[in-house]
Amino acid sequence: MAVVGISVDPPEITRAHAQKQGYTFTFLADTDAAVLRRWDLLHEAGGPQGADISRPAEFLVDATGTIRWANLAGSIIVRTRPETVLKAIDDLGLATPAAQ
Questions:
Q1: Are 36 and 30 within 8 A, CB to CB?
Q2: Best CA proximity match to 76, nearest among 38, 37, 46, 98
Q3: Which residues of 26-36 are buried (b: 16+ CB within 10 A; e: fewer)?
Q4: Contact present, 48 and 23 (Cβ < 8 Å)
Q5: Bridge-partner residues for 59, per DSSP?
Q6: What is d(CA 36, CA 53) in angstroms, rounded to the nearest whole number?
Q7: CB-CB neighbours of 53 under 10 Å
Q8: What is the DSSP letter of 17?
Q9: Are residues 88 and 75 in contact, defined by beta-carbon separation less than 8 angstroms?
Q10: Domain covering 4-92 in this structure, CATH number
Q11: Is the dihedral of CA 11, 18, 49, 81 positive or negative?
Q12: How many CB atoms sit inside 10 A of residue 14's CB?
């Protein structure tokens, strides 16, 4: 299982933001917003100076590419709590067994 973030920002901005926040997971730069459009997450002109931004969302996607769980936040500042995502992973049986 892997955590991946998707951003409409250019790679250098995304990289700087991830470093500043201490994120260690992979970010993908979706500068043409193709993924965000496909998943209906693009908030056109919703950012500063009319920049396109993503609607906040979290997804659990299985190895086949099937979305198994989704949270589409109603607010840019309200995110899913980590324990909620971990419970969804457990409930769906997506957790990788711990090494023995």
A1: yes
A2: 46
A3: ebebbeebeeb
A4: no
A5: 70
A6: 9
A7: 19
A8: H
A9: no
A10: 3.40.30.10
A11: positive
A12: 20
Read out DSSP for 61-87? E-TTS-EEEEEE-SSTT----HHHHHH
Euclidean distance between CA atoms 37 and 74, whole angstroms: 17
What is the residue-level pLDDT of the chain in tens, covering all 100 positions?
A: 677 888 888 899 989 988 999 988 888 888 898 988 988 888 888 888 998 888 888 888 888 888 888 888 665 556 677 788 888 888 888 776 654 4
Q: d(Cα 14, Cα 20) in Å, to the nearest integer?
A: 10
* Number of residues written out for the chain: 100
Q: Which amino acid is at 14?
A: T
Let me know the angle formed at the C-alpha of 32 by 29 and 18, rounded to the nearest 5 degrees. 20
Tokens 């955590």 found at? 3
